[in-house]
Design a protein that fits this description.
The chain has 13 helices and no strands. It has helices at about 5-25, 30-45, 50-55, 65-75, 85-105, 110-125, 130-145, 150-165, 175, 200-205, 245-270, 290-315, 320-350.
C-alpha cells in the first residue's frame, strides 16, 4: 500500500464537498452573506494546519470511515446543519466524483493536477483572508509532497485510492446525464484533450521524479499557483461552464452577438415587410410663404383623410410572404436556442445531486 495516498482522497473529496455545498446554497437561494460565511468556514476547517499536518505524513492511507468522520466534522463547522440523509448523499457524491476522476486520470501528473483544480476552485470561492492563506499554504504543501516523488510512486498512490473506493458503486445523475457513467454504476471514460498516455511511456518515466521532468513532456499542465492545469478533471462539474474551453467560450459569445443581430434583423423585417404602412408625419415643416399656407394645409388634410379611410378598410396590414418566412426563421433561431439553454440550466439546478 502506498504511503502517499491520503492527501489525494482528503483534498479531492473536500473539494467536491465544497462544489456540492456551493451549488445547493445557490439553488436554495440562501442569503449571499450566509453562503459566503459557510464556504469560508468550511474551507478554513478543511485546510486547518493541524489536520493537514497529519494528512501529509508519509503513512498508510487513512481508512474511509475515519476519513468520513473528519469530513463530516468539517461540513458541520459552520452555521449550516445537515441531517443524516443529506450527509449520506453528500458523501456518496464526493466518493463517486473522486472515483471517476482518478479512474479517468491518464498519468501521474494529471493526478496532481486534479488536486490543484480543486485547490484553484477553493481559492475562487473564498473571500476570507485566513481562508486565502490556507489555500496558498496547501498548494505549496502539495508541490513539496508530490514533487519529490517518482512517476510510479504517484501512480501507485492513485491505485491505492481506487482500491479503497472499489466497493462504492452509486449511480449519480449528473454523471449519467453527461454519459460519464453507465446504468450499472461503472464509468464511461471518454477521450479528453489532455492525455499523458503514461502506460505507453511508463518504462521511461517510472523512476523519474515529477519535478525533474518538463511539463511539456507530459501534455503540459502547470503546477504554479495560477497556472493552466490543462485537464478538465477536478473542475466543478456542477457549473454550466464545465467543459467549455476558452475558444468555445469565445464562440458562444460570438453566437450571442449573432443572435442579437438576428433579433434586430427580425424587427427590420417586420417594418420592411408591410406593403401598406400606416404612417403619420410626426410634424410638418412649412417652407412656403404665408399666402400659400392655407392651400397647402387643405391639401395635407385631404391627403391624411384619404390615408385614414384606406387604413380603416384594411385594419390589418398585409405582410409580404417572403418577409414573413424570413421573420419566422429568425424568431425560431433566436428563441429556440435561448429556451434550450434556459431549460438546461433549470435541469442542472433541479437534478445536480440526485442519487439514483
Amino acid at each position: 500500500m502506498s504511503l502517499h495516498s491520503t492527501p489525494i482522497l482528503y483534498l479531492n473529496m473536500g473539494g467536491e464537498m465544497l462544489y456540492v455545498l456551493r451549488q445547493r446554497l445557490k439553488a436554495q437561494k440562501i442569503d449571499i452573506d450566509k453562503t459566503i460565511q459557510v464556504l469560508d468556514d468550511v474551507t478554513i476547517a478543511l485546510l486547518n494546519p493541524k489536520i493537514l499536518s497529519s494528512i501529509f505524513e508519509a503513512s498508510p492511507m487513512i481508512e474511509i470511515p475515519q476519513l468520513r468522520s473528519t469530513l463530516e466534522s468539517v461540513a458541520l463547522s459552520s452555521i449550516m446543519k445537515l441531517d443524516k440523509s443529506s450527509m449520506d448523499k453528500l458523501f456518496d457524491l464526493m466518493i463517486m466524483m473522486v472515483k471517476y476522476q482518478l479512474t479517468a486520470a491518464t498519468g501521474p501528473r494529471e493526478v496532481i493536477l486534479i488536486i490543484l483544480n480543486h485547490i484553484d476552485a477553493m481559492r475562487d470561492m473564498v473571500s476570507d483572508v485566513n481562508a486565502q492563506k490556507c489555500v496558498s499554504m496547501v498548494h505549496q504543501m502539495i508541490i513539496n509532497f508530490y514533487g519529490c516523488l517518482t512517476f510510479d510512486e504517484i501512480w501507485n498512490a492513485r491505485q491505492s485510492c481506487l482500491n479503497e473506493l472499489e466497493s462504492y458503486n452509486v449511480r449519480v445523475s449528473i454523471l449519467l446525464r453527461r454519459s460519464l457513467q453507465n446504468d450499472d454504476a461503472s464509468f464511461n471514460i471518454t477521450p479528453q484533450k489532455y492525455n499523458e498516455k503514461y502506460t505507453e511511456h511508463r518504462n521511461i518515466l517510472a523512476s523519474m521524479r515529477i519535478k525533474d521532468v518538463s511539463p511539456e513532456t507530459c501534455c503540459g499542465g502547470s503546477f504554479d499557483a495560477f497556472g493552466d492545469r490543462k485537464t478538465l478533471l477536478g473542475k466543478n462539474i456542477y457549473l454550466p461552464t464545465y467543459g467549455i474551453t476558452e475558444s468555445t467560450r469565445r464562440d458562444s459569445q460570438q453566437l450571442l452577438r449573432d443572435c442579437g443581430v438576428k433579433a434586430e434583423l427580425g424587427m427590420l423585417a417586420v417594418q420592411l415587410g408591410t406593403e401598406e404602412t400606416n404612417y403619420e408625419r410626426p410634424f410638418t415643416l412649412n417652407l412656403l410663404s404665408n399666402m400659400d399656407e392655407e392651400i397647402v394645409n387643405k391639401a395635407i388634410d385631404a391627403e391624411e383623410n384619404n390615408a385614414k379611410q384606406n387604413n380603416s378598410e384594411n385594419e390589418k396590414p398585409k405582410l409580404n410572404e417572403d418577409y414573413r418566412a424570413k421573420l419566422d426563421t429568425v424568431y425560431a433561431d433566436f428563441f429556440d436556442d435561448e429556451n434550450e439553454g434556459l431549460k438546461r440550466s433549470m435541469d442542472l439546478l433541479d437534478l445536480l445531486d440526485e442519487i439514483e
